[in-house]
Amino acid sequence: MSQRIELVAYEAGSRLDSYVAARCPQLSRSHVQRLTDDGFVTVNGRASKSGYKIREGDRIVVDVPDPQPIAPQPEDIPLSIVYEDDDVLVIDKPTGLTVHPAPGHSEHTLVNAILAHCPALSINGSIRPGIVHRLDKDTSGVMMIAKNDAAQRDLSSQIKERTVLKQYTVLVHGRVTPDKGVIEAPMGRDPSNRKRMAVVDSGREARTRYSVIKYFKGYTLLEVTLDTGRTHQIRVHLSALGFPVVGDGVYGKKSDIAARQFVHAARLGFNLPSNGKWAEFTAPLPHDLEEAVKRVSKL
Question: CB within 10 Å: which end of the chain, N or C, has fewer?
Answer without folding.
Answer: N
